Amino acid sequence: IFLNFYIENKKNEQVALSESYIDAKIFIENGKDEKATEVLKSIVVSKNDTYSVLALFLLIEKDFIQDKKEVLDLFNHVLENTKFDKDIKNLIIFKKAIFQSNFVPEDELLNSLKPLLNDETVWRPHALLLLGDFYLSKGENNKAREFYNEILSIKDLDKEFYKKASIQIAFTNDD
Fold first, then answer.
1. pLDDT (tens digit, 9 = 90+) per residue, 66-114?
2. To the nearest whole number, what is the mean pLDDT of the chain?
3. What is the CA radius of gyration of the chain?
4. CB-based burial of residue 55 (10 Å sphere; 0-12 exposed, 13-18 middle, 19+ buried)?
5. Once rounded to an integer, what is the mean pLDDT over residues 141-168?
6. Which of 94, 134, 99 has its CA nearest to residue 114?
7. Rounded distance between C-alpha atoms, residue 8 and residue 115, angstroms
8. CA atoms of 55 and 60, how far apart (whole Å)
9. Cβ count near 98 (within 10 Å)
10. What pLDDT does 175 receive?
11. Residues 36, 91, 96, CA angle at the centre, nearest 5°?
């Protein structure tokens, strides 16, 4: 009986979150951005492995939260309180790093990307490319070149990564 109650309760929670997410999208369509933001934030903190992430990404896409620290706090909440498959978690880590790459110091960006850099994940080449581009944008060509060369040293990688890294290395040689 308890197991059936638990399963039914979880199913009802999922339905309620999906309805809230749809409500938020309707609020957006009707120009009620404040109400949509409120609903989406409540979904983010719900610890649901599907709708928390969808709500967070919609908040970011629509630029509903101006405070970057608040967005980073929401990213951290999702990463720390929601159970994900390893690849999904790594994707969220990567999206967080992309978000913060324009305004955080180098050490904070490196720290965010550490789980991707220290593991043989499909997101590692993406993280290396992001860091190479980060340093290139700062005019630190030697550091950028290191990350691009690391991409070139990965075996059996999609050819597009090799191509992008090679092109970016050519930009670093212009100094």
1. 999 999 999 999 999 999 999 999 999 999 999 999 999 999 999 999 9
2. 93
3. 20
4. buried
5. 95
6. 94
7. 36
8. 9
9. 15
10. 52
11. 60
Q: Which residue has the tokens 């040293």?
A: 153
Burial class (CB in 10 A: 0-12, 13-18, 19+), 139: exposed
Residues 87, 118, 93, 123: what is their CA dihedral angle, to the nearest 10 degrees?
-50
CA 172, CA 88: separation in Å to the nearest integer? 32
The two three-digit tokens of residue 59, written as one number: 């908040």
The tokens for 18 are 């999906």
* Long-range contacts, 160-166 (Cβ 8 Å, 24+): 161/125, 161/129, 164/129, 165/128, 165/129, 165/132
Amino acid at 143: K
- In DSSP notation, 103-128 reads TS-HHHHHHHHHHHHTS--TTHHHHH
Please report, as a single letter, which amino acid is at residue 16.
Answer: A
Token pair listed for 80? 């720390």
Give the Cα separation of 119 and 10 in Å (integer). 33
Per the CB < 8 A criterion, the answer to whether 86 and 74 are in contact is no
